[in-house]
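Limitations
The structure tokens in this dataset are predictions for the assembled complex, not deposited experimental models. Users should treat interface geometry with appropriate caution, especially where small molecules or nucleic acid strands are included. An illustrative entry is reproduced here so readers can see what is and is not provided.
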Amino acid sequence: MSLWENYIRKVVPYVPGEQPRKPNIIKLNTNENPYPPAPGVTRVLQDFDTSKLCMYPDPTIKPLVVELARYYGFGEEQVFVGVGSDDVLAMAFMTFFNSEKPILFPDISYSFYPVWCNLFSIPFKTPALDEKFKIIKNDYYIENGGIVIPNPNAPTSIYEEVSFIEDIVKNNPDSIVIIDEAYIDFAGASSLELVNKYDNLLVVQTFSKSRSMAGMRIGFCIGNPKLIEAINNVKYSFNSYTMNMVSIVSGVEAVKDDEYFNSTVGRIIETREKTKGRLSELGFTFPDSKANFIFATHNRVPAKELYEGLRADDIYVRYFDLPRIYNYLRITIGTDEEMNKLLDSLSRLLI
Amino acid sequence: MSLWENYIRKVVPYVPGEQPRKPNIIKLNTNENPYPPAPGVTRVLQDFDTSKLCMYPDPTIKPLVVELARYYGFGEEQVFVGVGSDDVLAMAFMTFFNSEKPILFPDISYSFYPVWCNLFSIPFKTPALDEKFKIIKNDYYIENGGIVIPNPNAPTSIYEEVSFIEDIVKNNPDSIVIIDEAYIDFAGASSLELVNKYDNLLVVQTFSKSRSMAGMRIGFCIGNPKLIEAINNVKYSFNSYTMNMVSIVSGVEAVKDDEYFNSTVGRIIETREKTKGRLSELGFTFPDSKANFIFATHNRVPAKELYEGLRADDIYVRYFDLPRIYNYLRITIGTDEEMNKLLDSLSRLLI
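Predicted assembly:
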């Protein structure tokens, strides 16, 4: 072994959901949106003047920052944009979690959080969800170096009201509290309404779910200008030009088309509610989902068996071989047609 | 001041060259290519099926990895792709430079290197270039935690032969040596030919200069499979999906069109050689550039004065207010027409 091998950073990387390239599969394993992005995105790509590509993009990502600030009603100095919310969260962990005290996030949650802690050597503790998979607020009222609360939580799909989030933010004035709202548009009120009230709050959202743009990699966060300046400084110390020209212009188009956004989100919520009823009839139980997925367990057949059976039918859902949740499937809400095929397949598997 | 402010990472961010949005300026300040990307890039963007954007992109960036492996004659397991070579270098610094010994790079070089060291708490030393701005090989034969050599170096524009690089790599079997070849296509032989001979060598290149795609953010590195696996693991611990779908397909098109690539690189080299002659006539001296820029000083008029005079004429070049190089301008090679305007403006300023 060469000496240089000792200097390689040891990490346990995040394992993303499978991205099978087979045609004609039904892909309900990575919480993607089944509908295409807003029509303006197609237009702006087709009209894109590629001769501009020889120049660097705007390092401040200004057009998209301006559009998001306008849409959500904040100042431009309150918005940071990154290459998907994973990029935003990675930068935020690196920027804000440099205390020796552990940061806190739920034991069952987005499995990337401990990966970032490992990468950046951030100590962490994971308070357990209760037996109904709900976050216990009081567990976050202890000394800590920061807090991350996903709302709705994944993979549990449970949404907490803004007043619940506010209690956590208010009780931790010495910590930065990140609310990871990847699924908020399928749920209810956003904690964005707290941003101007609490300077220790950072709200993270993504274009990958409700805006049908996982393939374009756009995420953002909103907070007080001091937090945004700090995360921008770290970004400029990592890679000045993170967003390519095409994502910037197509992100702007996606935000502009509020009517399209509301209609696709509405369709997904409608399909989710129908799917809940049919899963119940088949003997499944699940927390009351407010996301674009359902976290379900069957009263008789093990989740792993169903996962494999569905796979044999070319239907992909997510299965986590982890304590407490090894008997659950995380099923993304697709189109009505896709859900019908899923339910048909499940019916056969449950005979 | 709130307590959480103590936990914010302190950084001194990299300052990219200005990106003025004024129309009709001549922009020779960030070493961009004046020609548009290959025609295939325009085609693939116009034909892009935006309905696919609702899905995540391929986290392994396989189509582009395959194309680069084919083009440069390596195995797929030897290629890593990132969001510009800054992303590749940031990931490489984070992955490979975890020794307590200082890493080494030249005192006059890419100003992002010390920024990454600061961000990741990597100790570093910067051996001085000689009085002709050349790298002194022997300075790198001391104990170190890694080495970064840009070739051609920037902003000096000086290229060293592969045998020179090989000596440094060979004399440092215990360190990972990164050769940053952002400008290699304007220069001469690449150190890629050493990759299969030395397992401690990583060669980094970019699409931002010779491939006219700064706006698309694509960079890559090639090395032994163990190095590539390690940097991929860190990438998957940071952000699984860094490259959007559009950059992946357009990157493939750029690599495929070798004829277009050779012709635009050839034109830039031709313009560079003509510009050298005319700058000499005006009383400038400069190292013999093998890059797409010239690093020039005038025998009478201070660089700062020329920089400001050019700016008043809407011609932007790069000026560094730094020890040793405060009397130099870094002038990007644009089109013949742009260089004529630059030279006309300089002639007037030198009267």
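Some entries come with short summary sentences. For this one: The CA atoms of residues 255 and 277 of chain A lie 32 Å apart.
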